[in-house]
Write a structure and sequence with these properties.
nucleotide-binding, unfolded protein binding, Helicase, Ruva Protein, domain 3, protease, two-stranded antiparallel sheet, about 45% helix, Rossmann fold, about 350 residues, ATP-dependent Clp protease, ATP-binding subunit, ATPase_AAA_core
Length: about 350
Amino acid sequence: MNNKFNNSSSPREIKYFLDKYVIGQEDAKKTISVAVYNHYKRIYYSYKAKVEIDKSNILMIGDTGTGKTLIAKSISKFLNVPFTIVDATSLTEAGYVGEDVESILTKLLQSANYNIALAEKGIVFIDEIDKISRKNDNPSITRDVSGEGVQQALLKILEGSIVNVPPNVGRKHPEQKLIKLNTKNILFIAGGAFEGLKNIISNRLNLSSIGFKKNVSIDGKDLLNFVSSHDLKKFGLIPELIGRLPIITNLNSLERESLKRILLEPNNSIIKQYKELFLLDKIKLKFTYSAIDLIVDKAIKLSLGARGLKTICEKIIKDYMFNIDLIKESLIIDKFDIKLKFK
């Protein structure tokens, strides 16, 4: 683990680092900074603790492109710990076509170069956790191998236990040498868009205990602030899984000004990356203000959040990159270039 964390880091310092890469989402960054700080403090001072402190696994709820993956990646970068991303939709219950849940830990081991001690203090980001919700609010009668079955399989590794992990992603077989990995100190961060969750929250808030409508007025974008375990259960997460993701935070959809800042401000902003790539070929790249505004407008229209910015910029830049040897000294991208690409 990063010695800086051991000696002097604080939740404020973690958030300060996140601020360099993640625009907006102030409440989410604060919540996650505290949770991560407490998680690694729990590990570092475990020999002193008189009370057993539970894990601070995190659930992030937010639309595509709001920064869930970026936050998880940035946390691992700050702490200098092994990190892996897993798509929950690729997982199936053991014995069925697809990846076993143990493959998550295989990928973490690989990111740690098979250093078990390092992997056991790593971070796993499980993306699209909402896509493995069970089909209704009642326990399944028929086997749901990619939904409730996967949720059940995740419980063991999220809680903290010793798991036999195959050295390579794929099915276990009897002759295979397995690696024992203790998940007690691995931080699991799950994320998903949870489409339809706002309706569940809204229905709950607007119904009184005797069934009559209450006069509750909440802005739609703020509804996720009121999410409860009951809402997540109704959405399709099993109670045991909800219990193993005790820290819940939501990320708001990015508004115009935030998208503009994402393009320009972070240390690794998209525009800065392109400028650096062109500079390596001794070409000064510039985007006009009107071009930036138009890129943001296109991203909003596509409803892909920050992720859409990269897609749009790539389409604009591709031909210039292809002909980079023909460009002399400087290149200015203006709104007319963008309009031409998106006719």
